[in-house]
Amino acid sequence: MIKVEHLTKFIGIDKQPILHDVNIQFHKGEMITIVGGSGSGKSTLLRCLALRTKWDEGTFNVDGDDIFKRGISGKIKIKRQWAYLEQSPYFNLKRTALKNVLVGQSSQTPWWRMLTGMVRSDDYMGAMDVIESLGLLEKAHFKTSQLSGGERQRIAIARALVHGAQVILADEPVVGLDPKSIESVLELLRDLCKEERVTVLTVLPLELAERYGTRIIGLSNGKIVFDVKGRRLTHAEKNMI
Fold first, then answer.
1. Residue 148 has pLDDT above 60, yes or no
2. pLDDT of residue 104
């Protein structure tokens, strides 16, 4: 279980809270969709959970471990086991999709592998298995620059899984994609939750959040205004964000 209590984040000289006293608990296999207006704190919440943005207040407990009390080792645990997917994932566009999956990101991979791109044969086979499971086996040896936006998002997910991600934080992962690619990416994330017990937290437009999320969290002015499980939102709830 993951438990966040009293997460608060200030911005600016006057320390205005962009997140205020946020409390969340979530479990393996949940697909949590986060909704809210512009400036509500959605992206900041994901960045705080990924430890890419420093918390000003709050406690962070993962499977019984107090992450902040563990210091550097706690932060390393999160950066290795949690994957943060941005709207436009970074890739070396001159490398193939497979090589980008294998080499990974700096928080997951030894410096020498990042520099040289060298991999072991068992890593190669494992990565190919994951890429095949995501329906992109025929694109594994294409340069990443040749892939569509939806294919790149799936390759980003493959990279996260190959490097052991147990939690995926996805910040508007389908922005700018065509309807078919949107469906492909979100169905993939939903299937990972069901079949692999990966936990997903993703910022989505309301209509997609209702369609794909097992749970919907609404943010407004940096506060959670509802946390709904297993149903669509009421009109009153929609008016809260």
1. yes
2. 64
User: Cα(226)–Cα(209) distance, rounded to whole angstroms?
Assistant: 14
What sign does the dihedral 166-167-173-174 (CA atoms) show? positive
> Which CATH number fits the domain that encloses residue 107?
3.40.50.300
What is the span of the domain harbouring residue 229?
Answer: 2-238
- Based on the structure, what is the number of domains in the chain? 1
Using DSSP, state whether 57 is helix, strand or coil. Answer: strand
Distance in angstroms (rounded) separating the CA atoms of residues 159 and 153: 10
Q: Which long-range contacts (CB under 8 A, 24 or more apart) does 140-146 make?
A: 140/96, 140/97, 140/98, 141/96, 141/97, 141/98, 142/96, 142/97, 143/93, 143/94, 143/95, 143/96, 143/97, 144/91, 144/92, 144/93, 144/94, 144/95, 144/96, 144/97, 144/100, 145/93, 145/94
Q: pLDDT for 177-226, tens place per residue? A: 889 889 988 998 999 999 999 999 999 999 999 999 999 999 999 999 99
Distance CA 189, CA 210 (A): 14
In whole angstroms, give the CA distance from residue 182 to residue 60. 32
